[in-house]
Automatic annotation (TrEMBL):
GO molecular function terms attached to this record: heme binding; metal ion binding; oxygen binding; oxygen carrier activity
Organism: Actinoplanes utahensis
Matching InterPro entries: GlbO/GLB3-like, Globin-like_sf, Globin/Proto, Hemoglobin_trunc
Keywords of this entry: Heme, Iron, Metal-binding, Transport
Protein name listed in UniProt: Globin
Record SUPFAM superfamilies: Globin-like
Family: Belongs to the truncated hemoglobin family. Group II subfamily.
CDD domains: TrHb2_Mt-trHbO-like_O
Biological classification of the source: Bacteria, Bacillati, Actinomycetota, Actinomycetes, Micromonosporales
């Protein structure tokens, strides 16, 4: 018998949907992040992030089946992702992660990945 994936261990799709829904509630009201989303309705972006995170953590491959390789930096290249945007993204994601009430081990694992991903996405040097 194989060990459960992280996806299964944290509750599967409903957990990732709650995470992303809470995250986008913050984004929708954020004057820095909201303009980075060209679609007025954040639903399609939320769905893409949910499917990506579910696949990354061992869930179904729906994301890559529909969109191919994630190519995260390339997909975000048109947007100015600076330290302020990263920090705003992390703020809303921290609220979302904390809202899940995961056991500390799972919370820390998820947060570590999200924090590393946010730093990786920065594509604009700070002004001097």
């Amino acid at each position: 018998m194989t060990a459960p994936t992280f996806f299964d261990a944290v509750g599967g799709e409903p957990t990732f949907r709650r995470l992303v829904d809470t995250f986008y509630e913050g984004v929708a009201a954020d004057p820095l992040l909201k303009p980075m989303y060209p679609e007025e309705d954040l639903g399609p972006a939320a769905d893409r992030l949910t499917l990506f995170l579910m696949q990354y953590w061992g869930g179904p491959s729906t994301y890559s089946d529909a969109r191919g390789h994630p190519r995260l930096r390339m997909r975000h290249a048109p947007y100015r992702v600076d330290e302020a945007a990263r920090d705003a993204w992390l703020h809303h994601m921290r609220v979302a992660v904390d809202s899940l009430g995961l056991p500390e081990e799972h919370r820390a694992t998820l947060w570590d990945y999200l924090e590393r991903a946010a730093y990786f996405m920065v594509n604009t040097e700070p002004a001097h």
